[in-house]
Amino acid sequence: MQTMERQRVAPVHPRPRRPAPWPVEFYRSTVGMKWVMAVSGIFLMGYVFLHMLGNLKLYMGADDINHYGEFLRDLLVPIFPRTVTLWLLRIGLILAFFFHVHSAYRLTRINRRARAEGGYISKRDYQAATIASRSMRMTGVVILLFVLWHLADLTWGTANPDFVRGDVYRNVVASFERPVVSLIYIVANIALGLHLFHGAWSMFQSLGLNNPRWNSVRRGFAAGFAGIVMVGNLSFPIAVLTGVISADDNPDCRVVDGVIETCELYAGEGEG
Amino acid sequence: MIGELNSKVPSGPIEDRWTNHKFDLRLVAPNNRRKFQVIIVGTGLAGASAAATLGEQGYNVKVFTYHDTPRRAHSIAAQGGINAAKNYKSDGDSVFRLFYDTIKGGDFRSRESNVYRLAEESVNIIDQAVAQGVPFAREYGGLLDNRSFGGAQVSRTFYARGQTGQQLLLGAYQQMMRQVRQGTVKLYTRTEMLDLVVKDGVACGIVVRDLVTGQVTSHSAHAVLLCTGGYGNVFYLSTNAKYSNATAIWRAHRRGALFANPCFTQIHPTCIPASDEFQSKLTLMSESLRNDGRIWVPVDPDDTRPPDQIPESERDYFLERKYPSFGNLVPRDVASRNAKAVVDQGRGVGPLKNGVYLDFSSAIERIGVEKIRERYGNLFDMYERITDENPYEVPMRIYPAVHYTMGGLWVDYNLMSNVPGLFVLGEANFSDHGANRLGASALMQGLADGYFIISYTLADYLAGLLGTDPVPTDDPVFADAERSVGDTVARLLSIKGTRSVDHFHRELGKIMWDHCGMARNKAGLEKALSEIPALREEFWKDVRVLGGAALNQSLEKATRVADFFELGELMVRDALHREESCGGHFREEHQTEDGEALRDDENFAYVAAWEWTGKGNEPVLHREPLKFEYVTPTQRSYK
Amino acid sequence: MSGASNETIDVVLHVWRQPPGGEGRMVTYTEEAKGISPDMSFLEMLDVVNERLIAKGEEPIAFEHDCREGICGSCGMMINGQPHGPQKGTATCQLHMREFRDGDEIYVEPWRARAFPVLRDLIVDRSAFDRIIEAGGYITAPTGSAPDANLIPVPKEAADAAMDAAACIACGACVAACPNNAAHLFTAAKLQHLNLLPQGQAERYQRTVAMVEAMEEYFGSCTMHGECQEACPKEISVDFIAYMNRDFVKAQLKNRKLAGQT
C-alpha cells in the first residue's frame, strides 16, 4: 500500500525565539510595520502638500518664491539659530522617508514569501484592487528614484548645470525648460498621485481609524488630496514648458543670450 | 451474549434523578485525570464540547475528525435555533414543559429520565454558550431574544440569525482549540475512524486511516466516545452534508454495540426538490415558511399551465382541505406524507413533477411584499439563488427530504453503550428524541451530552480503571483490526469494476427512499430487503475505485457506502418488525381512519436494539421496555 | 425566470490536476463538460465530469465539499480568476451553472498560498487557520462556570456586529484573493467577534496580540486592496481589519496590569 509521511504546515515566517524590547517587537509585526508606514506616510503627505503649496508661489514671481525659501531658512528664529529648524524638519523627513521605505521593503519581502511558488496559472480577475493599490511598490520605487534625482537637480544642483544656490525661481525655470526633465517630473508626479491616492485611503485602515460616520468620505479625501497635490505639482513643468512661467517676462530675472543669469534677490545670503 | 438491557435509569422523583445520580457517580481526582487516555471521534457539537470539557478537567484526550478542521462538522448547518427552558418570556415554559413537549413530540418512544435530564441541562447550555461569546440574537435592551419554533406554544428557542448551529459549533470548537493549545487535547484532522477495537468485551481503542497518506494506525484508550452524528445519507439525497456517514457507529455495531431504533428517520417537509438526476444533496428551507405560505397542487395531474394561470377553482389546497383547523401548520410528518401522496398521484409540480407549491401570493396580498421580505428575505434569496425563480412572483416548489435520524447506537443513562468503555453522544446515539425530534432540539442534545453529562458519567467509568494502563497498540487485537481495515481498503481498490461509488449510493438511496422513506409497508420493505443485499453483492463485485490509498475521495466514499448497505438493511428490518406507526415511522397498514399514525403502545412501547451476529446472519432483537410515569401516551389529532 | 430549463450548455474546463505529493498542471476537459444543465451547482457539474472521468478510467478531480449549503466552508476554488467564482457573496457550492454561457472556458485552480499547500488537485491544507484560532480565538469559559446568560446585557448593535464578524466560514477565500496572501480578514473577523462582546473583554488585548502573531507566522501583510472583502462568501467587511489594527496598537501601548483590558 502506498503511504507517505503526513507533513504539518510549517510557519512561513517563523518568529525569532527571543522576544525583543517592545518597539522592536512592534516593528517586527506586519501590523506594526503598517502602522509605522502610515504614520511616516502622514508626515510625508504633510510635506508634499506644503511643498506643493509653497511652490505655487512660482506663479507670483521670483521675488515671492525666493522670499519664501528664505522664510523657511529663518523659521523659528530667534528661538533657534537660522536654518536649525529647517534642518530639524529635514531630519524628521529623512527618518520618515527611511522608515516608510524600510517597512515597505520588509513587507514586500514578507508578502513575497507568503505567496505560493508560481502563483495562479490563470489570469486573476480583480474586483476591488485598483491600479493605484496594485502599483504601490512600483510607484514607490519611482518616487524614491525621483526624490534622489530631484535633490540632485534642485537642492544640491549636481544634476542641474545652471544651478545657482538659493535662486529657487531661476533654478526651477532653468530645469523645466529642458523637456526631458519636465517629462521626468510629470511621470514622477503621476506616480506620486497614484501612490498618494491609495496611501491616503489605506492609512486609515492601518491606523485603525475607522468609523462608519466618516468611512464614506475616506475615498473622497484620498482622491481629493492626491488630486490637488498632483495637479499642483504637474502644473509647474507644464507652466514652464508652455511659457506661462518664464524668466523673460519676470522683472526679477536677468536673461543673457536666452539663458537666465539670475533671478535672485537674496542670493548669496543663505545657504542650504 | 447480551443479557437484559440495563438502562441504569435512577429511581426516585424525576426532577431529582439526575442530581442524585451525579452524587452517586464515582469521581476521578484532578491529579489522577491525566493518567487516563480518552478518545473522541467526531468534532461536532457533541464531540467538540466533550473534548473541551474533558481536556479542561485534565484528561488526556485525542480527538479525530475526517475534516480538514474540526469546525466543518455538520452541526454547523443547523439553522433554526436551540431550545432551552429558560422561560425568559414568562410565557409558561418550564423544565417540565420542555420535557413534556419532547416526550410527546417523540411520539412516546423515548426514555423519560433521559429527556427530563436534557430539559434540565438545556438552561446551562445557554449560559455556557453566552459565556463563550456565542452571538445570540438580542433585544434592544441587550437581553436575549427568543422565538417560537416548530409549532411550540412557548417562545423558548434561542437563535443567532439563521446560523445558530454554526455559532454554537464555533463556540465549542474554540473551547476545544484552547485545550489543543494547552496540550490536553491532541487533534487529528483528516483522520477517519474505521474500526473499534474491543478486547475481552471492553472498548480499548480505535483504528484510523490517515486520509492524506492512507496510513492505517491504531490508538488505544481507557474509553472511546463516538460523537459522529446521524446516518441520513443512507438515502443518498438528504439535507445532511456529503461526508456525513455511519461508518464509525456501524463498525462499533459490528464489534458488539447494539443499534437502537434504526428505522426512526425524520423527514423535513420544506426542502427544495431535486432539479435533475445529478442532484447531489437537498437544501432545507426553514419550517417557518409554512406560517405564511399556502401549499397546493393543481387538481388535474396533466395541468401544465404556469401556476399563476391556474384559477383558484382548479387548485387543491390539500392540507387546508384535509386539516381545516391546523391547515398548513400540521406537524412535519403529516405535511410530508400528504405532499408525498399528491406527488404519487402524479399531481406534483415543476419540470420533474416532484414538488408541491408553497404559495405566498395571498400572504403578499394581505400584508404586503415588504412584510414578507422582512420575515423571509434571506430564505427567498437562497431559494432564488438555487432555483433561479423569484418566490415573490412564482410560488416556491418544495418537497420533503430526510434530515435527521433519531435512531443510533443504544446507550444507557450514562451514555455508555452495551460495550463497556464505549460511549455515544449526540445524534449518533438513540437516546432522547424517540420516534420524532422537535425542531431546535438537536443542538440542545449534542451540547447537553458533551458539556454536562459525559464528564460525570465517564468519570464514574474511569474511576474503576484507576491504576490500569490502556491496552497497548501492539496487542494482537489491534493488529487484527488494522489488518481487517487494510484488507477492506485493499479489496475496494482491487475490484476495479465498471460503476462508480456514487452510482451504487444513488441506487441504494432510491431503494431506501421508495420503501423505507416517508411511508412504509410490508410489501415494500420486503422488496427492499431482497434488493439491498443484491445491490450490495453487485457493489462488491463491480465498484470502480481508481487510484491508490493516498488522498482518494472515491475510496473514502466507498468505505462509507459499503457500511450504508448493511445499515440500510437493518433499517428496513427494523421498520418491518415495528408493526405500528409512530413519529417518523409510518406504516401504511397502521393508520387511523383519517390517515394518521396509529401507535401500538400495547406491543411496541419499547426500544428495539439490534445485535450484529455476523455477515449474512439475521440480527438479534433486544427490547428495552419504555415506562411512562409522568406523561401519559395520547393520540395526536390535527383536524 | 427559467425555472428548470431543458437546455444544456457545453463548457470547456481547465482544471489544476496534482497527484498527492507530485507536480501539478492544468488539464483541459472538453468532452466531459458537455451537456451541463444550468440548474446544476458548480460542484454538481464537477460531479458529472467526475462520473465521466471514472467511466473513462481516469481518476476523478479531487475537491473539498461537504454541506453544499454555503456554511461549512469546505469548498472553495479559484474560478476564472475569482475565488468562489463570479457571483458575489456566494460560496462555490452555491454557485450555479446558469452564471455561465454555452462555450465558456472555465479555469479552475486551488487556493494558492505558501501556507495552503496543495494536497491534491483542488484540495489545500488550511490547518494554519486552526493555528490562529488556537493562539487565542476563544473566550476562556470553563464548562460549568458560566453565570446566567442574561446577567450581562449586550447592546444589540454590538451583538449584531459580532454576529456579522462571526459569520466567517474559514473557507480561505480571503487568503486566496489577497495578492499578499494575507489572512487579515479571517483573523480580524474572529477577533472582532470576540472583542466586541462584553464577555470577550478580559482577554481582549492578549487575544489580539496572540492571534496577530500566529497569523503573521503563516501569512502576508495587508495592503488594503480590498479583494478579500469582495471574495468573502459571507461578505465580511474590511472594517474589521481596521479594528484589529487598532486593538493591536492599543495592546502595545496599554498598561494592562493597571489599566485593565478595556
Structure in words:
The complex is a heterotrimer of chains A (272), B (639) and C (262). In chain A, 61% of the residues lie in helices and 3% in strands. Chain A has 272 residues and is mainly α. Chain A has a two-stranded antiparallel ribbon with strand order 1-2. Chain A is elongated and about 80 Å long. Chain A starts with 21 loop residues before the first helix and ends in a 10-residue tail after the last strand. The C terminus of chain A is likely disordered. Chain B is an alpha+beta fold and 639 residues long. Among the domains of chain B are: 135 residues, Flavocytochrome C3, Chain A, domain 1 (Alpha-Beta Complex), CATH 3.90.700; 118 residues, Methane Monooxygenase Hydroxylase, Chain G, domain 1, CATH 1.20.58.100. Chain C has 2 domains: 109 residues, Ubiquitin-like (UB roll); 133 residues, Fumarate Reductase Iron-sulfur Protein, Chain B, domain 2 (Orthogonal Bundle), CATH 1.10.1060. In chain C, helix 2 packs antiparallel against helix 6 and helix 5 packs antiparallel against helix 6. Chain C is elongated. At the A-C interface, helix 2, helix 4 and helix 8 of A face helix 6, helix 7 and helix 8 of C.
First-to-last CA distance of chain A = 78 Å
Q: What's the CATH C level of the domain at 268-402 in chain B? A: Alpha Beta
What spatial order of strands do you see in the largest sheet of chain A? 1-2
List low-pLDDT spans of chain B: none
> How many domains, in number, for the residues of chain A?
1
Summarize the main sheet of chain A.
Answer: 2 strands, antiparallel
Q: What percent of residues of chain B adopt helix (DSSP H or I)? A: 25-40%
Portion in strands of chain B: 5-15%
Radius of gyration computed on alpha carbons of chain B: 24 Å
Distance separating the two termini of chain B? 48 Å
Name the CATH superfamily assignment of the domain at 268-402 in chain B.
Answer: Succinate dehydrogenase/fumarate reductase flavoprotein, catalytic domain
* Computed structural class of chain B: alpha+beta
Report the average pLDDT across residues of chain A: 88
How is this fold's topology laid out?
The complex is a heterotrimer of chains A (272), B (639) and C (262).
Chain A: H1 22-28, H2 30-55, H3 62-73, H4 84-114, H5 131-134, H6 136-154, H7 168-176, H8 179-207, H9 212-241, E1 254-256, E2 259-262
Antiparallel strand pairs in A: 1-2
Helix pairs in contact in A: 2-4, 2-8, 2-9, 6-8, 8-9
Chain B: H1 14-24, H2 30-33, E1 37-41, H3 45-57, E2 60-64, E3 82-83, H4 95-105, H5 112-132, E4 157-158, H6 164-182, E5 185-188, E6 191-199, E7 202-210, E8 216-220, E9 223-226, H7 247-254, E10 259-260, E11 265-271, E12 294-298, E13 315-316, H8 318-322, H9 332-344, E14 356-359, H10 361-367, H11 369-387, E15 396-405, E16 408-409, E17 422-424, H12 442-463, H13 476-495, H14 501-516, H15 522-542, H16 553-577, H17 601-604, E18 606-611, E19 620-625
Parallel strand pairs in B: 1-2, 1-9, 2-5, 9-17
Antiparallel strand pairs in B: 3-4, 6-7, 7-8, 10-16, 10-18, 11-15, 12-13, 12-14, 14-15, 18-19
Helix pairs in contact in B: 1-5, 3-6, 3-12, 4-5, 5-12, 10-11, 14-15, 14-16, 15-16
Chain C: E1 12-17, E2 25-29, H1 42-56, E3 78-79, E4 82-83, E5 105-109, E6 118-120, E7 123-124, H2 127-136, H3 156-166, H4 173-177, H5 184-195, H6 204-218, H7 227-231, H8 239-253, H9 256-259
Parallel strand pairs in C: 1-5
Antiparallel strand pairs in C: 1-2, 3-4, 3-5, 6-7
Helix pairs in contact in C: 2-6, 3-5, 5-6, 5-8, 6-8
